[in-house]
Design brief:
The protein is of the alpha+beta class. It folds into two domains: 97 residues, Orthogonal Bundle (Arc Repressor Mutant, subunit A), CATH 1.10.10; 97 residues, no CATH class. The chain contains ten helices and five strands, in the order H-H-E-H-H-E-E-H-E-E-H-H-H-H-H. The strands form two sheets. It has a three-stranded antiparallel beta sheet. It has a two-stranded antiparallel sheet with strand order 4-5. Helix 6 packs parallel to helix 8, helix 7 packs parallel to helix 9 and helix 8 crosses helix 9. The two termini are 37 Å apart.
């Protein structure tokens, strides 16, 4: 993917953009353009989008980010859609404003197209339930009880892992995600941990469990920025147990 995208100055006077609910929503929409692939698509999980556009704004929650994305979709700035339980975003006017765009010189998009899939919302479109599933069982009286069960997608750490790694988190992920959340790990730490494992010759990203320790390292770096950049070799030594637990700071 390219290092950046072209943003025309007339976005500053665009009526739809200026009528968004708050400054953060306007800024998030504009900054997300820089993360689009050559087809104008990007990941749409709120936790991942937040890590893209507001990595240093811990005051902006995943829930707020989700409301921003929904707003962009509702006013027609984007198409927010779901394929195989993963969420994505498409900018319909992307190519119109990308002067000199040459998809042949960029990596092919790995994000599925929005065409022929059901959108998350909109008039005349079937809505897709997100993060909720229903289980039906009969009780002793023969009556049917409908119970709402929350999916592990409700945890932003698992959502970030699934969307960014394209892997299933594994059986122990729910408990681990809860423990990491209590320690202070956020979705951006998970994404950076995945990037580290992808570049490491010694470790592989195979499940949520495989990123646990690296995510703790990334959290420590975020909460306690070192005066000097942490050497990748020190990161690897920590994973091998040669150092103490960063997460207990």
């Amino acid at each position: 993917m390219a290092r950046g995208r072209f943003i025309e100055k007339k976005i500053c006077i665009d009526k739809t953009v200026n009528e968004l609910s708050c400054f953060e929503s306007m800024l998030g929409f504009t900054w997300l353009i820089t993360h689009l692939d050559c087809e104008g698509r990007t990941y749409g999980d709120p936790a991942v989008v937040r890590s893209f556009v507001f990595p240093r704004r811990n005051d902006i929650t995943v829930e707020q980010m989700e409301s921003f994305i929904q707003e962009w979709h509702d006013v027609g700035l984007i198409v927010w859609y779901e394929v195989d339980e993963d969420k994505y975003i498409y900018f319909p006017k992307f190519k119109m404003y990308q002067v000199g765009l040459n998809p042949e010189r960029e990596a092919k998009s790995v994000i599925p197209t929005h065409e022929q899939v059901r959108s998350k919302s909109g008039e005349g479109q079937e809505q897709i339930p997100v993060n909720v599933k229903l289980s039906v069982k009969s009780n002793v009286k023969g009556e049917v009880e409908v119970k709402e069960e929350k999916s592990d997608n409700n945890n932003p750490l698992i959502s970030a892992f699934r969307s960014y790694s394209k892997l299933e988190p594994g059986k122990e992920a729910t408990l681990m995600a809860k423990q990491l959340t209590e320690k202070g790990v956020i979705a951006d730490d998970i994404i950076k941990a995945i990037d580290f494992l992808r570049e490491s010759p010694d470790y592989k990203c195979t499940s949520f469990k495989s990123v646990k320790e690296s995510a703790i390292v990334e959290m420590s770096k975020r909460l306690h920025p070192p005066k000097n950049k942490i050497d990748p070799e020190d990161h690897r030594r920590y994973l091998k147990g040669e150092y103490g637990d960063f997460g207990n700071h």
